[in-house]
């Protein structure tokens, strides 16, 4: 028969196990946050609903030269984001991914229908090997117009169903051609990419460095995308 002391020890053990299990269920996975937590940051400054309707599952790791992190709406200077960042995520080796970087505030954040400017588009990325992806639109940094306020620069990662054929003319990084009038929603719908797997964003506004940066990194020809 159990003694009172044995019963007490058993109850204490059960209580300890219950507390441990409850804590484990409440904590997010290592390196990840719950979808609701990620969505909270994307609702900040209206990335949801201006760019996407549903938040990503996880944050995308975006690091610019100088170990500068583009994370959760942090405000950065145009000079800091001039060069292409390193982008990392946890990927399945047998999957392909699409990466989008878009500014929904061109020429300025005017409701209810922001205009997007496509800063970067890489498709058919095997796993997380960015260097092996197909760059359809070359990277160009943030150069917001004077007086246009704070711009949002949104990174979105999508997992493709397979290797896809993207009917897009390549755009060099120094060209403005094909960047204006982009729509993330229309692009995602056209290629059936579903909801974003991961994402992040930063903000930037005009500074005295912008005119020189824009001149160095852009041509003035323009051929709008029809998304």
Automatic annotation (TrEMBL):
The keyword Iron-sulfur does not apply. Keywords: Signal. Residues 1-26 form the signal peptide. InterPro entries: PEBP (IPR008914), PEBP-like_sf (IPR036610), PEBP_euk (IPR035810). Gene3D superfamilies: PEBP-like. It holds the Pfam family PBP. PANTHER family: PHOSPHATIDYLETHANOLAMINE-BINDING PROTEIN. This is Phosphatidylethanolamine-binding protein.
